[in-house]
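Q: What structure does this chain adopt?
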Amino acid sequence: MSDNNRFKRFEIPEIVLHWAQGTPFLILLISGGLLLASRFYNMDAATYHLLTNIHKTTAVSWVSLTLVSYLLVGPKLHLANLKEILTWGLVDIKWMVNSFRSLYNSAIEIPDAGKFNTGQKINCLLVMGYFFGFALTGFLMWFRGTILVSWYLHASLFFAALSSVSGHLYLSFINPSTRVGLGGIFHGWVPKSYIEHHHALSLPEEEREETMLRTMGFTEEQRKGEEEYHKKAVGSSMKAEIIFLITTLVLGVVGLWVFGHGQEASLEKGFNNIIRPRELSGAHQTKEIQGNCTKCHDYTGDLKDENCLACHKIIKERLDAKSGFHGTFGESRCRHCHKEHPKLKKSSIIPFDPEKFDHTLAMFKREGKHADKKIKCDDCHRKKRKKAYPGVYYMGLKFDSCADCHTDPHKSNLGDKCETCHTNNAWQGEELKFDHNRDSKFKLEGKHEKAKCIGCHKPDKQNAPLGTAVFRGLKIKCANCHKDLHNSQFGDSCQSCHTIFEWKGKELKFDHNLDSKYKLEGKHATAKCIDCHKPPQQSDPLAAALFRGLKQDCAACHKDPHKSNLGKGTECKSCHNFKDWKGNELKFDHNYDSKYRLKGKHAKIKCIECHKPASKTDPLASALFRGLKSECIGCHKDPHNQKLGDDCLKCHDFKGWGGDNLKFVHNDNSKYILEGKHARVDCKKCHNPQPDNKAPLGSARFKDMKYEKCDDCHQDPHKGEYGAGCLACHSVESFPPKKADFNHDRHTKYALEGRHAQVKCIDCHNPRSVKTLGPITLAGFKNDCGACHKDFHDKLLGEDCKKCHSPLGWKGKNLLFNHNVHSRYQIDNLHVKAKCTGCHYKNYYKPLKTACEDCHPQGSKVFVQGSAEQSR
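A:
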């Protein structure tokens, strides 16, 4: 399709495919170029990783957009273009030949071309090659990066594509004859003159004829100018295409040549440095490996373990023997764990985490104490790696014997078979396999069995470990290890007294009764050895004491508490025995072994109450036992002050000094017979102890007491008004209130009538009025009511109470008063219902007025006018 000046060269599907394929491709060239350039200067890891991610992301977008655009956006048009690109004939060969010839002869005529000239066909084929070549090698580099050929081809394609794209950009933006068609790739339209000079065969036949007719009318000079311009325009573009095509082919061939020419060429080593993904790990940065990819890689195959094992021979030995950590992997590949070309420069490719590593998979199984979490890897793996790769070596350690890692504290005195005595669980203590009874000449029995090793096997220095001690050649006699605390008193035959189970106490073989001249009996058998066998110094052990040549008499060990009061040389055994020196075990019997027998209460008292030591803190034995008096006053103080003589047993008995045990009978042994209440009175009531009643009864007076009259003991409450004849009213059975036959009406001048007969004596004879009952007598009483009763009338009615009141009752029905008889005011039928207090206010009885208005004034509920009483 065309108009007068323009020609429709590209359709929309073609434009979409161009930019969908071209734009990502340019980004890939730029990012790839920067990645290659990073080989020549230090690029930080973050930037490098960013470029790598951009390159990979763009590559996926490039492949995806190209395929989608080709298959979904105008696929028929793209297929037609592809057929034309792949269709070659003699014209294409002639175009190529003449294009080469035109490089040195500008007169050579280039054949006319259709939509695509031969150079453009070649360029399209190169683009297709780039697409599939980059996609395939990139995929292999991404997912099978160990195949070396993909890296070479990818780099070779980069240089070829760089040349192709450079030529394409030159023709599009710089070359004068072709840059006029640049707009066609944006909107599809190009100048018709561009088509006439470069793609004349793509014009419709009628337009080609019009062009021919137009040029036929040219002058000779115009025709030559048009031919010259055509040759120049076409020639210049062809020259550029041929030059860039040759450059592209040369770069591609050079890359393949480098790829196929062995590792000796320095050019290839430089190329290797360019195409490598990242630097090698620190351990592999050696002269033999650096830049020599085929040292580890194959061109067309995967990484082979043989290449790794050629250097790592110890790993090969473990794999072949299927032992140790690496021997457990079977057919696993080295690269599965060891990822070369790490992200960080000179970092390790050994994926080792000490916290997670299972040491049971290694040649040396960590068991027992070796498996303790406190033990760090560096405690055993001490061989440092090279400076380029910090850390330690984990393989190649020698562990045939314990001494390969551990210092032999025994200094080879016990040989090199440590496992004979020790285990992995612990080198000492309960885990020690060494059995002293089985593995030595000296059996550990008894207390020796509980002794610590260091107790016998002393290290050569104070703080040195036990292992440095001597274990062989030790002497086995007791004195070789134990100091003789007896200072050779018994020779060196320790076994005669001691056992290996315990050197003293219950396990002591020595029997005092069998092995000595002094038998231990009674309390001696329970005494401690040290009580008799005393060491020279208090801090010295018992064994340092004297055991032979001791005296056997009591005084040799025991101090005489009696201070020889019982005689010198007296046999202690006469009173004491071995079971106990005192108490129930005392052999002394007071009734048989002394002149004073203990009877009654004397038999129950403690010795110390009669035999008193000089001081309270002194023992009983220091008291006086001989020369004591046997009379009562020898021990007891006479409370009667010898007023009753010194024959105490006349009244007292040994069973008890008083109470039921008192031998004294008052009615038999005194002149005063106790009868009635006197027989029940406490002795202290009559025999007053001195100085007060709290003193003992014995301090009272018992002789020369008056007892003929009552007032000798009792105070007369009547103050002599009745004389000494107390028994007229009282008896010894009960003093108050009266004798059983006492009659108030008969024995007094005042007869009790009515309510008077019901009151208690104390109601009349009361302390309030007379202080005590006794002093109030009939002689002191008045015969009028006012003597006992309060006059509530305040003497307004006189003293003759009997006119109105009766002993039967002072008020109510018993009242004798009659208002109509005993007063001047007669009570009628109306007033009889009134209460006494209604007229006699506050007990006021006389004199009262009798007029009505005196009680009923005007204004009250009852008003009286004149003498007539009206109800209101």
